[in-house]
Amino acid sequence: MITKAPRGVEDWYGERMYKRTVVEKIARDIAKTYNIKEIITPVFEHTVLFQRGVGETTDVVQKEMYTFLDKGERSITLKPEGTAGTMRAYLEHNMYAEPGPTKLFYVTQAFRYEKPQSGRLRQHHQFGVEFVGSKSPLAEVEVITLVIEMINKLGLKDAKLHINSIGCKNCRETYNEALLKYLKEHEDKLCPTCRERMQKNPLRVIDCKVEDCKKIVEKAPRTIEYLDEECREHFEELQYLLNQLNIPYEIDTGIVRGLDYYTKTVFEFVNEDGFTLCGGGRYDGLIHEIDEKQDIPSVGFGMGIERILYFLEKEGVELEAEEPVALYVGILGKEAKAKAYQLVNNLRKQGVIVETDYMERSVKAQMKYANKIGAKKTVIIGEDELQNNIARVKDMESGEQTEIALEKIAELF
Ligand SMILES: [Zn+2]
Ligand SMILES: [Zn+2]
């Protein structure tokens, strides 16, 4: 008997499943008003896509990917995030040939081999947006306003926008030198992974989760002090636009995000209790990493759906309730079965949520069941009702009964 799923994955059903669909619906509805189109990419991709796209020295690629050889000896990886696959699809289908920008959103599973902990399993779900083709800080503003609207529509506590700029490749050169110099002075206190990373990609030391490393990082040089003119202007324009739009923010020089593809802007939304709800930023170099013939800027963000559900629960936010069963059609006697089912069928065609008896229960048991599933109204269809073409619809809350011709029942809804 195998009745237990592997460690770190979960089933979705019942109320939690319903809540997830509500969250996804809110996301889809907002995306629609921004004219952002949905994209679904495969669950797995060539491993090299993530090595190049997410970055060889990131925690995700070094420690957390589900990578395996398929029967054709190809290295395949279950996607650990949504951006790289979306960008690969953007390139594969020449979406850049259309007038830009290309605005895409996804709702996807993502797989990371991590120690399962509350709110973070090995399979999780993300809603994310990719805004491809624009160099303007207005692209960042668009993605940021979308997140703000999402937080408002979900009814979550206010979360504050934290922004930073980590510069481009050009800025990174001078910054890396300064950072490396600083890190070398403290090398003995860094964790083994960081000591190794330091040489290849010192920026990754900044988001190490090991306490000792965090302490050293606190006093490390900041990217923002090493921006070239273009990057500084970009960051200034972004701040100007946010000010003009009355979007409050805080500059947080500690944010670098855990993925290599970020350039210039990085941002996070942090709630009153200091928890990060979601994050994103600009990644002008990502497309070039995937296809060296292309060089197209882009901006995006990703939001963990489990994380959102966790905060909704923690903050006691009630989502819009699931629509109840509007009518339970009870069946009395074998002869009435087909006719009663016909009525059920007709009502459903009109969009009414209807349930009936498939268990051949007694009328009393059927009413008990209707009550249990929370049906708003009930009606019993038997020989008498069919012969006289009249039935009594009962309101389960008030107990009130309405006599009505069978073909008119639909008018009650
Ligand atoms: Zn720069
Ligand atoms: Zn470390």
Automatic annotation (TrEMBL):
Locate the residues binding L-histidine. 81-83, 112, 126, 130, 257, 261-262
Entry-linked PROSITE patterns? AA_TRNA_LIGASE_II
Domain of life from the UniProt record: Bacteria
Q: Which GO terms describe its cellular component?
A: cytoplasm
Which residues are in the Aminoacyl-transfer RNA synthetases class-II family profile domain? 1-324
Q: Which reaction does it catalyse?
A: tRNA(His) + L-histidine + ATP = L-histidyl-tRNA(His) + AMP + diphosphate + H(+)
What Enzyme Commission number does this protein have?
6.1.1.21
Q: What CDD domains does the annotation carry?
A: HisRS-like_core, HisRS_anticodon
- Which keywords does UniProt give here? Aminoacyl-tRNA synthetase, ATP-binding, Cytoplasm, Ligase, Nucleotide-binding, Protein biosynthesis
Subcellular compartments: Cytoplasm
Annotated GO MF terms: ATP binding; catalytic activity, acting on a protein; histidine-tRNA ligase activity; transferase activity
Q: Which GO terms describe its biological process?
A: histidyl-tRNA aminoacylation
Instruction: Quote the SUPFAM superfamilies the UniProt record gives.
Output: Class II aaRS ABD-related, Class II aaRS and biotin synthetases
The record, for HAMAP family, names: His_tRNA_synth
Q: Which PANTHER family match?
A: HISTIDINE--TRNA LIGASE, MITOCHONDRIAL-RELATED, HISTIDYL-TRNA SYNTHETASE
* Quaternary structure annotation from Swiss-Prot or TrEMBL: Homodimer.
Provide the family line. Belongs to the class-II aminoacyl-tRNA synthetase family.
Q: What name appears for this protein in its UniProt entry?
A: Histidine--tRNA ligase
Lineage, please? Bacteria, Bacillati, Bacillota, Clostridia, Lachnospirales
